[in-house]
């Protein structure tokens, strides 16, 4: 077996790994049946479907010839750092870290921080555009999660709302 597209082959392996992990994790919950689904039914089906799609992609990567073999390039360390860092900062700002004395800053501050930090991953930075995007995301998140779904988590920093 010769790999004819490295990108597709390893993407397929990644999909298979994530799909198998989800399907395996779903077995910890009650599966139920098609007529009466349990909490593990959807993750199980989704994991199986993802693993199947990964299998098809990996198989095609060994059968269909590509021009240059679709070699895998270098790791993009800057985007990886900023995207992962933005998510970590979002989690810390949303809920805080009481053990380190960091208070919860709330949803709005966390979304603005997430958007600005993640925007540093690209090659261009437009502060005005990022501010507009962060505002749209903050308003949309507030409407969806706080107003419509009535989820209970801090929206504003604790020192503002008391």
Automatic annotation (TrEMBL):
Domain DUF1468: 10-154
Alphabetical UniProt keywords: Membrane, Transmembrane, Transmembrane helix
InterPro entries named in the record: DUF1468
Transmembrane spans: 41-63, 75-96, 102-122, 129-149
Protein name according to UniProt: Tripartite tricarboxylate transporter TctB family protein
């Amino acid at each position: 077996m010769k790999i004819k597209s490295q990108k597709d082959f390893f993407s397929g392996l990644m999909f298979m790994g994530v799909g198998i992990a989800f399907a395996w994790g779903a077995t910890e919950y009650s599966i139920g049946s098609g007529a009466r689904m349990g909490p593990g039914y959807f993750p199980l089906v989704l994991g199986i479907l993802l693993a199947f799609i990964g299998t098809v992609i990996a198989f095609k990567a060994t059968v269909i010839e590509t021009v240059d073999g679709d070699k895998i390039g270098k790791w993009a360390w800057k985007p990886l750092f900023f995207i992962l860092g933005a998510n970590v900062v979002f989690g810390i700002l949303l809920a805080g870290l009481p053990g380190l004395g960091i208070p919860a800053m709330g949803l709005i501050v966390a979304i603005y921080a997430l958007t600005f930090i993640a925007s540093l991953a690209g090659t261009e930075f437009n502060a005005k555009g990022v501010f507009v995007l962060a505002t749209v995301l903050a308003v949309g998140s507030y409407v969806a999660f706080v107003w419509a779904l009535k989820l209970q988590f801090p929206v504003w920093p604790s020192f503002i709302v008391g």
